[in-house]
Design goal:
This protein has about 575 residues and is mostly helical. The protein has helices at about 1-15, 20-55, 65-80, 90-100, 105-120, 130-145, 150-170, 175-185, 190-210, 225-260, 270-280, 290-300, 305-325, 330-350, 360-375, 380-390, 395-415, 420-425, 445, 460-470, 490-495, 505-510, 525-535, 555-579; strands at about 430, 435, 455, 475-480, 485-490, 540, 550-555.
Length: about 575
Amino acid sequence: MDLISGKIKENIYQWLQNESVISNSLALLVGTLTGLAIVLYDHVLEGSEELFFGSFYGLPRYYVILIPAIGGLVVGILVHFFTSTRRYDIEEVIEATTLRGGRISARNAFLEVLASVISIGSGGSVGKEAPVVLAGSGLGSSLARALNIYGNRVKILLGCGAAGGIAAAFNAPLAGVVFVVEVILGELEASTFIPIVISSVFATLVANTIFGVRIIHASNYELVSPFYESVLYLGLGICAGIVAVLLMRSLNSTHDLFQSLKVHPVLKPAIGGFFVGMIGYFYPQVFGVGYDVITDALANELALSLMIVLIFLKIIAFSLTLGSGGSGGSIVPALFTGAMLGGAYGTIAHGIFPEVTAQSGAYALAGMGAVLAGTSHAPLAAILILFELTRDYNLILPIMFACVVSNLVSSALNPESIFTEGLRKRGFIIRKGKEVDIMESLLVRDAMKHNVQTVSENKKVTALIALMQSSRHAGFPVLDPNGRLCGIVTLKDLRDKVKKDEFEKSICEIASREVEVAYPDETLNTVLRRLAAKDIGRLPVVSRNDETKLLGIITRSDIVKLYDKKIIDKVQQQNRSKI
């Protein structure tokens, strides 16, 4: 008997040590915690909305203009004084998964989730999916850190959290899984897929047990004339692809505009919020997430003129909220815009061909998925989100058709999705969850020198010559009396601008004032292209928030040294994996 008991204990111990048992158990834990976190997030978000809009109850209606501005100011203060790195969103999760082994800062993720509660609660025209993905990813990454987990398991746990966040927020477990596979991980393997499914299922179960509501209600629609309507859905897919590109480019342009705006960073979200409030004063439908407006479009309860106007106003309000520094996601704004586009398209189509077309709500439903597919470049995830949101299978074929067409049009006009455009701007080209070029995974902060030899603009040329001879460097950043970067001086400036009898010239007379700079979060590939284009050998590294604040310097040789080191590390890693 003791022998049998010992054998059973040994088998149980070996089973518990099994890799898949450990991964799946951790996935179950992450999914459960994520489901609870999303329920808590929804309740806090409801309280935020009541706090902002309830506080103005009984006051003149024009006060509504100030609510998003106040929320934006609070977000600006929170972000500026309490976050130490760039903003977190789905883009950051993709970067962490691909380039940083799945590690993200739980603190920054939490602060971004908090910022989203303020943004959305005060009327910001964004969705809640980016915060819930961050919440889930942060939980997964934190669990990995707490348990001293490394390697591929960290990425799996991060993916589990992200899938659980989408699944719990939209009551869509399948969509959560596919979204993570299509958008974040870019791969489908049994070792990755099974834990993500488990996490997604348990997050949905937990959220449904406590919350248990469908967030969007849709009537049941069917194809009236498969042949004729297929042509119409083709047209809707093309229109949706164009609108998706318009939404992405509007966001990018607005972001660039606010980046260049010469005001304190704290005020930028408030400025964006003020203009959102101006739009919301006349069209309150743009405030917040907008599920009720989407439901009205699906139920054929919105006028054609209103839907046409809301297509563009939602894009503008969304771009202002996110581009100015507010916090939130882009999935629901894409669904909203698609519902308005599809509803307007369907109203016109049904008015012209009443005998062979369904009502406008059917086209609003397809339009939601099509615009989402165009912005995310993830058509399968878009199709499944629509199916699980509505539980209506009757229109699955036209929805699939419109989503695929929209994705083709959008990809042709804008190769990057709304989630990867920011990565491309910083030099990362990520395809199917993998970095395309090693130089696009290395940042300036990894290679730059922090101890920089500088010269004062008030010094004489003789001092510059002595410094060049002693240091053997051919260029130096120039600082003003306050220690701020005001130019750069090189051996070429010395040769071109100083004659034999002009050694008493001050450095400010010969320094170049138009300085090419680098930022710590740029990739080395981006910096190399800039060095080559200007035929220079070094760039001062400055803060994005203040280009006169010198952080360091980076040279061609710094880049080459780091590149060589990474190549050697990769070769050694590959050799170890073969042993």
